[in-house]
Amino acid sequence: MAADAALDLLLAPRCAGCGAAGSWLCLACRDLCEPVRHGRVTAAGTYGGALREAIHRFKYGGERALANELGTLVASCIASDLATGVVLDVIVPAVLHRERARARGYDQAWLLAAVVADRTALPLRIPLRRIRPAAPQVALDRAARADNLRGAYVAEAGALRGARDVRSYVVALDA
Ligand SMILES: [Zn+2]
Fold it and tell me: pTM score, two decimals?
Protein backbone atom coordinates (compact mmCIF):
# COMPACT_ATOMS: atom_id res chain seq x y z
CA MET A 1 0.00 0.00 0.00
CA ALA A 2 2.77 2.43 0.93
CA ALA A 3 4.57 1.65 -2.32
CA ASP A 4 1.36 2.28 -4.28
CA ALA A 5 0.88 5.63 -2.55
CA ALA A 6 4.47 6.62 -3.28
CA LEU A 7 4.02 5.64 -6.92
CA ASP A 8 0.80 7.66 -7.15
CA LEU A 9 2.66 10.65 -5.80
CA LEU A 10 5.46 10.19 -8.34
CA LEU A 11 3.06 9.81 -11.23
CA ALA A 12 0.69 12.60 -10.17
CA PRO A 13 1.03 15.51 -12.58
CA ARG A 14 2.76 18.61 -11.23
CA CYS A 15 3.22 21.81 -13.19
CA ALA A 16 6.75 22.17 -14.60
CA GLY A 17 6.52 25.93 -14.00
CA CYS A 18 5.07 26.45 -10.53
CA GLY A 19 4.75 22.92 -9.10
CA ALA A 20 0.95 23.09 -8.73
CA ALA A 21 -0.72 19.69 -8.74
CA GLY A 22 -3.17 18.64 -11.41
CA SER A 23 -1.39 19.09 -14.73
CA TRP A 24 2.10 19.00 -16.24
CA LEU A 25 1.90 22.67 -17.24
CA CYS A 26 -0.91 24.53 -15.52
CA LEU A 27 -3.23 26.98 -17.23
CA ALA A 28 -1.73 29.97 -15.40
CA CYS A 29 1.80 29.07 -16.56
CA ARG A 30 0.51 28.34 -20.08
CA ASP A 31 -1.12 31.77 -20.14
CA LEU A 32 2.29 33.35 -19.51
CA CYS A 33 3.49 31.99 -22.86
CA GLU A 34 3.07 34.74 -25.45
CA PRO A 35 3.36 33.73 -29.11
CA VAL A 36 6.39 35.26 -30.83
CA ARG A 37 6.15 36.02 -34.54
CA HIS A 38 9.17 36.59 -36.71
CA GLY A 39 8.32 36.94 -40.40
CA ARG A 40 6.61 33.71 -41.36
CA VAL A 41 7.84 31.81 -38.33
CA THR A 42 5.70 31.68 -35.21
CA ALA A 43 6.82 30.29 -31.87
CA ALA A 44 4.21 29.39 -29.25
CA GLY A 45 6.31 31.12 -26.60
CA THR A 46 9.73 32.36 -25.64
CA TYR A 47 12.10 29.65 -24.47
CA GLY A 48 12.33 30.49 -20.79
CA GLY A 49 10.65 30.07 -17.41
CA ALA A 50 7.88 27.49 -17.19
CA LEU A 51 7.99 26.73 -20.91
CA ARG A 52 11.71 26.00 -20.85
CA GLU A 53 11.28 23.72 -17.85
CA ALA A 54 8.32 21.94 -19.47
CA ILE A 55 10.19 21.38 -22.75
CA HIS A 56 13.23 20.15 -20.86
CA ARG A 57 11.13 17.64 -18.92
CA PHE A 58 9.31 16.60 -22.07
CA LYS A 59 12.56 15.96 -23.96
CA TYR A 60 14.87 14.70 -21.26
CA GLY A 61 12.76 13.89 -18.21
CA GLY A 62 10.58 11.17 -19.68
CA GLU A 63 7.41 13.20 -19.01
CA ARG A 64 5.75 12.30 -22.28
CA ALA A 65 2.33 13.40 -20.99
CA LEU A 66 3.55 16.99 -21.46
CA ALA A 67 2.74 16.44 -25.15
CA ASN A 68 -0.87 17.26 -24.23
CA GLU A 69 -0.18 20.60 -22.56
CA LEU A 70 2.52 21.69 -25.02
CA GLY A 71 0.45 20.49 -27.97
CA THR A 72 -2.55 22.46 -26.72
CA LEU A 73 -0.34 25.55 -26.45
CA VAL A 74 0.86 25.18 -30.06
CA ALA A 75 -2.66 24.36 -31.27
CA SER A 76 -4.13 27.53 -29.73
CA CYS A 77 -1.42 29.54 -31.48
CA ILE A 78 -2.32 27.86 -34.78
CA ALA A 79 -6.04 28.42 -34.14
CA SER A 80 -5.51 32.16 -33.78
CA ASP A 81 -3.49 32.17 -37.05
CA LEU A 82 -6.26 30.22 -38.81
CA ALA A 83 -8.79 32.72 -37.47
CA THR A 84 -6.90 35.56 -39.17
CA GLY A 85 -6.98 33.79 -42.53
CA VAL A 86 -3.61 32.01 -42.51
CA VAL A 87 -3.87 28.82 -44.59
CA LEU A 88 -2.35 25.65 -43.13
CA ASP A 89 -2.60 22.24 -44.79
CA VAL A 90 -0.61 19.77 -42.74
CA ILE A 91 1.23 19.24 -39.48
CA VAL A 92 4.75 17.90 -39.99
CA PRO A 93 6.95 16.75 -37.10
CA ALA A 94 10.73 16.92 -37.40
CA VAL A 95 10.97 13.29 -36.33
CA LEU A 96 13.87 11.88 -34.35
CA HIS A 97 16.30 9.37 -35.76
CA ARG A 98 14.94 5.95 -34.82
CA GLU A 99 17.96 5.16 -32.63
CA ARG A 100 17.40 8.29 -30.56
CA ALA A 101 13.65 7.64 -30.32
CA ARG A 102 14.39 4.10 -29.16
CA ALA A 103 16.88 5.33 -26.54
CA ARG A 104 14.36 7.89 -25.23
CA GLY A 105 11.41 5.54 -25.43
CA TYR A 106 9.37 7.97 -27.54
CA ASP A 107 9.68 10.59 -30.26
CA GLN A 108 8.65 13.87 -28.64
CA ALA A 109 8.25 15.70 -31.97
CA TRP A 110 5.86 13.03 -33.23
CA LEU A 111 3.88 13.00 -29.95
CA LEU A 112 3.57 16.77 -29.96
CA ALA A 113 2.56 16.88 -33.64
CA ALA A 114 -0.09 14.21 -33.05
CA VAL A 115 -1.70 16.31 -30.30
CA VAL A 116 -1.54 19.47 -32.45
CA ALA A 117 -3.08 17.62 -35.44
CA ASP A 118 -5.84 16.29 -33.21
CA ARG A 119 -6.64 19.68 -31.64
CA THR A 120 -6.55 21.61 -34.94
CA ALA A 121 -8.16 18.86 -37.09
CA LEU A 122 -5.27 19.24 -39.54
CA PRO A 123 -3.77 16.07 -41.05
CA LEU A 124 -0.49 14.77 -39.64
CA ARG A 125 2.04 13.83 -42.32
CA ILE A 126 5.55 12.48 -41.99
CA PRO A 127 7.34 13.52 -45.19
CA LEU A 128 10.72 13.75 -43.50
CA ARG A 129 12.80 10.79 -42.44
CA ARG A 130 15.87 11.23 -40.33
CA ILE A 131 18.72 9.33 -41.95
CA ARG A 132 21.39 10.15 -39.41
CA PRO A 133 21.20 11.27 -35.83
CA ALA A 134 22.40 14.86 -35.50
CA ALA A 135 24.39 16.04 -32.49
CA PRO A 136 22.15 17.67 -29.88
CA GLN A 137 21.34 21.22 -31.05
CA VAL A 138 21.26 22.63 -27.55
CA ALA A 139 24.87 23.87 -27.33
CA LEU A 140 25.15 25.08 -30.93
CA ASP A 141 24.79 28.57 -32.36
CA ARG A 142 22.50 29.32 -35.32
CA ALA A 143 25.05 28.57 -38.08
CA ALA A 144 26.27 25.39 -36.39
CA ARG A 145 22.66 24.22 -35.99
CA ALA A 146 22.04 24.61 -39.71
CA ASP A 147 25.25 22.68 -40.48
CA ASN A 148 24.29 20.01 -38.00
CA LEU A 149 20.96 19.38 -39.75
CA ARG A 150 22.32 19.46 -43.31
CA GLY A 151 21.80 16.00 -44.81
CA ALA A 152 20.09 14.72 -41.67
CA TYR A 153 16.69 14.27 -43.36
CA VAL A 154 15.36 12.87 -46.61
CA ALA A 155 11.92 13.72 -47.92
CA GLU A 156 9.50 10.96 -48.87
CA ALA A 157 8.18 11.54 -52.39
CA GLY A 158 4.47 12.21 -52.45
CA ALA A 159 3.99 12.56 -48.70
CA LEU A 160 2.81 16.14 -49.11
CA ARG A 161 0.64 15.54 -52.16
CA GLY A 162 -2.35 17.86 -52.02
CA ALA A 163 -0.59 20.50 -49.93
CA ARG A 164 -0.81 23.80 -51.77
CA ASP A 165 2.52 25.46 -51.14
CA VAL A 166 4.87 23.54 -48.93
CA ARG A 167 7.01 26.57 -48.11
CA SER A 168 4.07 28.52 -46.79
CA TYR A 169 1.73 26.09 -45.24
CA VAL A 170 3.68 23.49 -43.36
CA VAL A 171 3.87 23.81 -39.60
CA ALA A 172 7.18 22.28 -38.57
CA LEU A 173 7.57 21.14 -35.00
CA ASP A 174 10.80 20.35 -33.29
CA ALA A 175 10.37 20.17 -29.56
ZN1 LIG B 1 2.09 26.36 -13.23
Answer: 0.79
Q: How far is the CA of 108 from the centre of ligand 1 (A)?
A: 21
Helix (DSSP H) and strand (DSSP E) numbers for the chain: 8, 6
Please give the distance, rounded to the nearest whole angstrom, from the Cα atom of residue 10 to the centre of ligand 1.
17
Torsion angles phi and psi, residue 99, rounded to 5: -65, -40
Give the tens place of pLDDT for each residue, 93-118.
Answer: 888 888 888 988 999 999 999 999 99
Q: How far is the CA of 145 from the centre of ligand 1 (A)?
A: 31
**Domain ranges for the chain:** 2-173
Beta-bridge partners for 37: 42
What are phi and psi for residue 128, nearest 5 degrees? -100, 140
39 C-alpha to ligand 1 centroid (Å): 30
Residue % of the chain over a pLDDT of 90:
25
